[in-house]
Amino acid sequence: MLLGLMIRDQRAGRTAGRRNAPNRGAVRVTPPAPRSWPRLSMPSVNDAARRMQQLLWPLLLVVLGMGLYELANRLQPLAQRPISLINVEGDLQYIDRESVHQSIEPYLEESLLTIDLEALRADLIAMPWVASAAVTRVWPDQLVITLDEHLPVARWGDSALLNNAGRAFVPEHIDSFEGLPLLNGPERTKRRVMQTYQQFNRLLRPYGHRVAQLELRDRGSWFLTTREGIEILLGQGDVVEKMQRFLTIDKLMLSDRRELIARVDLRYSNGMAVAWREPATIQSGSNE
Fold first, then answer.
1. Which of 27, 37, 78, 265 has its CA 20 to 30 A from that of 103?
2. DSSP bridge pairs for 133
3. pLDDT tens digit string along 209-252?
4. Distance of CA 174 to CAs 152, 156, 159, 178, Å?
5. How much is the pTM?
């Protein structure tokens, strides 16, 4: 029993050694490589589309050129057609329609395509009451002109009017606007003076005052005159705060004697002085 077991172990060892030993003198057989077949080159879809585009583009250009030529031949009579109707639109109160017609008349012989719209617009804006103008072609032979007028808000000196944006314009018959407030100041300050006038007017109106004159002097001092003839000296700085101070005192102490007030000096830091038109029982000058 023991001997048989030992023999079996030796055979197993020889067998294992034989299995692990390298095969000396053995020939390795390499399997044949797979046969490579020649590829058939077929044109791709992108190449075909590209070639088609190269062929079609010249043809499309020729067709487009012929179409444009035919369209130009058909439109040429219409392009030379004179303007038959000019429509002027806008809420016009001061603009003279006869003056508008005189500005348009030199352009009536032009066709719709050849008329110089910018030149016509410039001629219209040069009219005294025209604030803005727009000129539009309407096919086949019409023009639409839209005009906006200046809105006169105040006089600027003796020779011009101001619109609500502080833009000056010089219309005819300016004397008929003497009822408007009179504003004055350096030429470069028109817009600033107009804005200050509008601000003061909003402050004064609830208290029964209205601005008759407003002046900004060269050194930056403001002078205001109400419709009642009260001169208000505001000085240079904090003019809105100073005006509110006057209105507070006016409501408490002066409202029933406004016709006696000649001048109010607000150029003080925390008070004001009042000058009366005629002697009164109240002493001149009052403080908060």
1. 78
2. 147
3. 999 999 999 889 999 999 999 999 999 989 999 999 999 999 99
4. 11, 11, 7, 8
5. 0.67
